[in-house]
Amino acid sequence: MSYPVSFEADYAERRSRLSAFFRLILAIPHAILLYIFGIAAGVLVVIAWFAIVITGRYPKGLYDFASGFVRYLSRFVAYTALLTDAYPPFNGSDDASYPVRMSFAGPLERYSRLKTFFRAILAIPIMVLRYVMTLMLEIGAVAAWFIILVTGRMPRGLFDLMVLANSYTARSDAYLFLLTETYPPFQDEHTRGAGVASQQPG
């Protein structure tokens, strides 16, 4: 059975040197909105935690809000880490045309109250691995930044390594936000670059 949270990123070899050089500045508006979005998502996931512990169900509205935040966060991270040159939309809605995509199977019919109650403890091994994967993504982003500025290209091997890291951090966020109660796999069929996107000028 496929994991209920998927992550995909389209590969484009040619990259814009100008966009890469100013990437962190270009990402500032998203960082501000994401900060506000994150505060709201944090409050709502606490409400969702109580709802699941009491009723065994994740309210659909809360699930959609939390999944939208995690999707927005994953696109922001991918953009700032140079996995894509495409500017992210200012929302967490599903967008099949964007080169970085994250999808969710939807809330379960019933959740384990016990797994939810002890989620903070159960998540400790995930947080440790997430920290390692985040470091790998950051190191890859720095390497990609220099390579793109010099060559105007993103090496496929480096891209795939960064997708692996971004994929795990995104799915670990889904676990932390109670969107799934299954440990995120290190890798599955969605952990890949999903083809070659349109080439962008150097």
What do these coordinates show?
It is a single chain. The protein is mainly alpha-helical. The chain has one domain (5-193). Helix content is 57%, strand content 8%. The chain has helices at 17-21, 23-26, 28-55, 60-80, 113-117, 119-122, 124-151, 156-176; strands at residues 5-11, 100-104, 193-196. The longest helix is centred in the N-terminal third of the chain and has 28 residues, at 28-55. The protein is elongated, with a radius of gyration of 17 Å. Mean pLDDT is 91; it is low at 196-202.
Outline of the structure:
With 202 residues, the protein is mainly alpha-helical.
Summarize the topology.
Blueprint: E1 5-11, H1 17-21, H2 23-26, H3 28-55, H4 60-80, E2 100-104, H5 113-117, H6 119-122, H7 124-151, H8 156-176, E3 193-196
Helix pairs in contact: 3-4, 4-8, 7-8
Which class of secondary structure composition applies to the elements? Answer: mainly alpha
Helix content: 55-70%
Number of domains: 1
Write down the Rg: 17 Å
> Largest sheet, described in full?
3 strands, mixed
What's the shape? elongated
What sequence of helices (H) and strands (E) makes up the elements?
EHHHHEHHHHE
Summed over residues and divided by their number, the pLDDT gives a mean of: 91
Which percent range describes the beta-strand content?
5-15%
